What we know:
Distance between the termini: 32 Å
Radius of gyration: 14 Å
InterPro entries: DNA-binding_VF530-like, SAP_dom_sf
Low-confidence stretches: none
GO molecular function, one term: DNA binding
CATH topology of the domain at 15-67: Transcription Termination Factor Rho, Rna-binding Domain, Chain A, Domain 1
Pfam families: VF530
Oligomer: single chain
Strand content: under 5%
Order of helices and strands: HHHH
Number of strands: 0
Organism: Methylomonas lenta
Helix content: 55-70%
Mean pLDDT: 89
Protein name: Transporter
Shape: globular
CATH class of the domain at 15-67: Mainly Alpha
CATH superfamily of the domain at 15-67: SAP domain
Amino acid sequence: xSKPTSKxxxxxxxxxxxxxxxxxxxxxxxxxxxxxxxxxSSDPSIASSLKFLRxxxxxxxxxxxxxxxxxxxxxxx
Length: 77
């Protein structure tokens, strides 16, 4: 019997990894432009952003959606 695989595209990716990759890709300024939350635009840091995102479901969902959009596998090519 094989182990069932998760259909969740974020399975195994921590919020910290996801956020770090977005910051590397976009930078804080552009990230704040995509997702208008204060922790990205006012003295941003990974630690303060993680603290906010872990407590704020709507903001975390926006970050996850941006990550999925920008890291979508190129399977349609």
